[in-house]
Amino acid sequence: MTAAAKRNPSGDSGGSQVLTAILVVVVIGIVCYLLRTILKPFFVAIFLSVLFEPVMTGLRRLKIPKGIAVIVVLIFAFTLLTLLGLLVYAGASSFADQYPKYETKVVALFHNILNLFHIPLEDLSNYVNELDWAKAIQDLSLPSFVSSSVGSFITFLGNVFLVLLFMVYALLGREYFFQRIHRAFDEKSSDRIAIAIDNINTQVQRYLVTKTAISLLTGTFATCILLLFNVDLAIMFGLLTFLLNYIPNVGSIIATLPPVLLALLQFDSSLRPLWIGIFLIAGQMSMGNILEPRLMGKSLDLSPLVVILFLIFWGFLWGIVGMVLAVPFAATIKIVTSNIDSMRPISILMSGAKGRD
User: Fold this and answer.
1) Which of 251, 270, 295 is the last residue of a domain?
2) Predicted local confidence at residue 229, as pLDDT
C-alpha cells in the first residue's frame, strides 16, 4: 500500500460523495419537474398549513370541534387563494387593455434614449414611429402569455381544490404523527425525535408567519403609496410586492421597478415617479433592515449564493410559484439541518457571513 493510500484509506470517498450529491440533486430536480402538477399544490398546501396552524390551535382552544375548525381554516384559505387569483387575472387583463394608451410615451421614451446615447438609428426610429403597438401587443398575445403562466381560471380552481385537499390531511394528521412516532420507536428515541421535530416545526412556523406578516405589511404599504399617487394597477403591484418580499434583497428591487416604470409612462412629470421610487425604497429598507431583523433575528441569515441558487433551481422547475417558495424551502432546510447534529455543517455552510447557529 502506498503512502498516499495510507493517508486516504477510504480512497476517493470525497469525490464519490460530491458526485452522489450532484446525482441526488439531478434526480430530485427531474422528479419535481415531472410531478410538478401534484407537487406544487402539495407544497403550497404545506406552506399554508404551517401559516394557519396557529389559527387552528386558537380555534381548538376555544373548544371548537376539530372538524369545524378545519372547515373554517379551509374556507379562509379558499377565499384567500381565489382572491389572489382574481387579482392576478384582473391586473393582467387591465394591463393588456390599458397598454395602448402608453403607446405614444413608449415611442417618446425610445427617442429620448436614442438621443441620450447619440445613437444614429433613423431607420429603427422610423420603424418604431410606424409600428402598430396595439397589433404588436396582440401578436405577442400578452393575455395568452399570462394565461400560460398561471393557467386558465378553471385550472387554477383545480389547483386550489388540490391545495385544500392536501391541507385537510396536513391539518388533521399532525397530532397523529407524534403518536405514530411513539409507537414506532422506543421511549427514549421517540422522545428525542419528537422534541427535534417539535423544535423544527416551531422554528419553521415562526419564520414563515413572521416573513408573511412582514411581506403583507410591505405590500400594503406599497399599495397605499401607489394609490396615494394615483398609479395604475396599484393593487396588482402591491400583490407583486407581497409575493416578491419572500425573496431577500433581489425581490425588493424587482418589486420596485415595475410601478416606477409605469409611473414614468403614466405621468408627464418625472418628479412624481422619483418620489414614488423614494417612498417604495424607503419602505422596503425599513421593513427589511429594521423591522425584519428585530422580529426574526440573525439565526436564519442565509448566504446570498444559497438564495440565488435556490431561486434559479426552483424557478426553472416551477416558474413563479417555485421562485416564491424557493427561500422558504432554503430556510426550512437550514432549520432542519441545524437541529440534527450530523447535518449541522450543512446549516453552517448555508449561513451568510454573519450567520450563526
Assistant:
1) 295
2) 92
